[in-house]
Design a protein that fits this description.
This protein is α+β, with helices and mostly antiparallel strands. The protein has a domain at about 60-175: Alpha-Beta Plaits. Helices cover about 25% and strands about 15% of the residues. It is elongated.
Length: about 180
């Protein structure tokens, strides 16, 4: 059978000589590597005093988006739940009632929207499947907790802050997605 990577090495099975049986050269070689790393620059970050920079394609916590008027973008079409390979998303749809036009953009909205973060693999397929740009993965870590039920995020946990009532929190939650304002 032929190797796929051509990186395989033959193992030397010859008997060890006197110095190899003492293991002293191997110990000194290991100590030299340790001493070399001892004087190198440290890669540890003192969080939260020092913030680590992330890649632009980092996928963190999920956010349910709103439009500029504060209405929810989600129409409960279910494409994000179907696209999720871990089946972490569940939702229930409801019809918009008269007088709720300021809350929801479309006639149908998500009455219940939950993501089980213990099942989520942060693949981003829900973000790609959404036709309304209602869900995206932010640049925030998923926080740790001691109870499993705290990892099931409801709609209220996932909604982005209201852009009119809480503009600072809204811009912070948008992160790099914030569009520069037109100066024309």
């Amino acid at each position: 059978m032929q190797a796929l990577t051509h990186r395989a090495k033959q193992v030397n099975r010859s008997p060890m000589n006197f110095w190899e049986r003492l293991y002293l050269p191997a110990i000194f070689q290991g100590m030299s590597i340790t001493l070399r790393h001892f004087f190198k620059r440290k890669v540890t970050y003192n969080f939260p005093e020092q913030q680590r920079s992330f890649s632009p394609v980092f996928r963190g916590l999920h956010i349910l988006n709103r439009d500029a008027e504060g209405r929810e973008n989600c129409t409960a079409c279910g494409l994000c739940a179907v696209a999720c390979p871990a089946e972490a998303i569940s939702m229930e749809a409801a019809e918009r009632q008269p007088g709720e036009e300021h809350l929801y953009r479309e006639e149908k909205y998500a009455a219940r929207y939950e993501i089980n973060m213990l099942r989520c693999i942060f693949c981003g397929l829900c973000e790609e499947a959404c036709p309304k740009d209602a869900i995206y993965l932010s640049e925030t870590f998923a926080p740790s907790d001691y109870e499993r039920k705290q990892f099931i995020y409801s709609k209220q946990d996932l909604l982005i802050p209201h852009p009119i009532n809480e503009p600072e929190e809204y811009k912070k939650a948008l992160g790099n997605r914030a569009k520069p304002e037109d100066k024309s």
